[in-house]
Design brief:
It is a single chain. The chain is an alpha+beta fold and 513 residues long. It is built from 18 helices and 23 strands. A 7-stranded mixed β-sheet has the order 3-9-10-16-13-12-11. Strand 12 (317-325) and strand 13 form a beta hairpin. Helix 7 packs antiparallel against helix 8. The longest helix is centred in the first third of the chain and has 27 residues, at 101-127. It is globular and about 75 Å long. The two termini are 39 Å apart.
Length: 513
């Protein structure tokens, strides 16, 4: 099955099973805005809890913060967002559709990568275990041709973006014969810049209102609170401030479901360090963050680092953690060495002295910052994309199953009486009342036991227990594992100890220590 077809099924599955709905769905939705349903919000909260605890519980020098969405407008002038937070946009005259020029070119680079991967996949199928991928990549003419085209385009694109040469970006689109996905034509306008920040007004009257912005990132809330946290917490370098919160960007080309939205959530940590040590900490946080992702068990081959060639004006090093989505490797997290740009800018614009007094050296200086920034929604999507599977079973049946990490699953345990009589529902409710204080349980008595298993498979519930007539006499239930579908008989008294560690966030955190 083509990967784009798989992705369509995942999007459909999200709506059908209560993970993600189009916002304002009864009014035909609002473009690039989504709501998280009853299962989606649980999965999302578990992802956030995993991140939060990995930061503030496992590091005694990282603390939390929750800053406001609305901030003084000068914050965004100081950070550079008012003048430089722009996307290069291009219009197709025939379809009247607007696109990000950089995204069109990145997609073209991705097409060369897809061609290479298809050649490799065909060769792997043809040669089987004898296939030598490294040799094939270095000798196959079609692979070498596409690799050369990809490299040349990437170098030209990086140079154009580095200089923000809008004319060159358009010329690349023309030279690569990139067509509008809607009209199929190449009748493009010139490339222009577009600021991504949402504006609004605050004030009691129209005449007295002042313009402010919805924050396009959560990081600035950390920087403007640096002094407050450092002094009240008596923090010593190095230390970090972690935050989870909503951000807003007026994306013209919002696409790929929840991968790129106008309202999204970020998990960011700013780590303040002594100048001169920042690159060492940058490398350390790269490895720490990659370990966090790989602890989920999705396979190291599905992750890679992408080091930035074009650095933001505030950075001296930057790298992305990319995950293999159905539409290619895409960024889920960024690690940046932001130097002392942000604190210095806020000191300049506020007139406040924002420095750190180092008791070891008896000197004051502006700390440097290492940032780790992960999109909650992108992380959510990567988890779902890896978890979604369609399996063929014995007898010709199939099942759709979400093989979510048990610690992230919305529901940990489904409790099912075999029939709705003979005291079985009462016993099932008794078991649920005991376990619901320890992990999220769901009671399910509708339909046959087989249909109930399939329903729980589809939402990723890792374990189900069935209460039957023997339970009333022997005190045992049938425990079913989602992934293996194997069943075993265990005492009710052992349920909590058998399951709690497997389904808790602690089970993931232990892999990081």
């Amino acid at each position: 099955m083509a990967q784009e077809d798989v992705f369509k099924k995942i999007v459909s599955h999200c709506k059908e099973y209560g993970f993600v709905f189009p916002s304002s769905d009864i009014y035909d939705g609002l473009g690039a805005v989504y709501d998280y349903g009853q299962n989606g919000v649980e999965l999302k909260n578990n992802i956030k809890q995993y991140w939060w605890q990995s930061m503030v519980l496992l590091h005694d020098n990282i603390v939390g913060l929750d800053s406001a969405v609305f901030m003084h407008p000068t914050v965004w002038k100081a950070s550079g967002h008012v003048d430089a937070f722009n996307d290069p946009l291009i219009d197709n005259r025939d379809s009247k559709k607007r696109y990000r020029a950089d995204v069109l070119i990145e997609d073209q680079i991705g097409k060369y990568e897809e061609k290479i991967e298809k050649e490799i996949a065909k060769a792997r199928k043809r040669f089987g275990e004898a296939f030598d991928e490294a040799q094939f990549r270095s000798t196959n003419p079609r692979v070498l041709e596409n690799e050369a085209k990809k490299t040349a385009l990437h170098e030209r694109f990086a140079k154009a973006m580095g200089a923000m040469d809008l004319a060159e970006l358009k010329q690349i689109i023309l030279d690569e014969e990139i067509a509008c996905p809607i009209s199929g034509t190449r009748n493009w306008t010139d490339v222009r810049q577009f600021n991504l920040m949402f504006k609004t007004e605050v004030g009691s009257t129209a005449d007295g209102a002042s313009t402010i912005y919805l924050r396009p990132e959560t990081a600035q809330g950390i920087f403007v609170n640096y002094l407050n946290v450092q002094k009240t917490g008596r923090m010593k370098l190095p230390f970090g401030i972690a935050q989870i919160g909503k951000a807003f960007r007026n994306e013209i080309v919002a696409r790929q479901f929840i991968f790129r939205m106008r309202e999204f959530e970020q998990m960011e940590m700013q780590y303040f360090v002594k100048p001169g040590t920042e690159l060492q900490w940058f490398e350390q946080w790269k490895q720490t963050r990659m370990a966090w992702h790989q602890a989920l068990g999705f396979g190291a081959e599905n992750y890679r680092f992408h080091d930035h060639e074009k650095l933001a004006h505030y950075a001296n090093a930057a790298s992305d953690v990319e995950f293999r989505m159905p539409f290619g490797f895409k960024e889920v997290e960024g690690i940046h060495s932001r130097t002392n740009f942000d604190l210095s800018q806020h000191a300049k614009y506020s007139g406040r002295k924002i420095e750190y007094f180092d008791p070891d050296t008896n000197e004051s200086y502006t700390p440097y910052v290492i940032e780790t920034s992960i999109g909650v929604d992108r992380m959510f999507l990567s988890v779902l994309c890896h978890a979604y599977q369609e399996e063929k079973l014995e007898g010709g049946d199939t099942r759709v199953v979400l093989k979510l990490p048990a610690a992230l699953a919305p529901t940990k345990l489904a409790i099912m009486p075999l029939v709705k009589k003979d005291g079985l529902p009462e016993k099932a409710r008794e078991i649920m009342d005991e376990l619901k204080f320890h992990f999220n349980c769901k009671y399910d008595e509708k339909d046959s036991i087989g249909k109930r298993y399939r329903r729980q498979d589809a939402v990723g519930t890792p374990f189900c227990i069935t209460i039957d007539h023997d339970t009333l006499t022997d005190g045992c239930v049938t425990l079913r594992d989602r992934d293996t579908m194997q069943q075993e008989r265990i005492p009710v008294s052992e349920l909590r100890t058998r399951l709690e560690d497997k389904v808790s966030i602690t089970s993931l955190l232990k892999k990081l220590c």
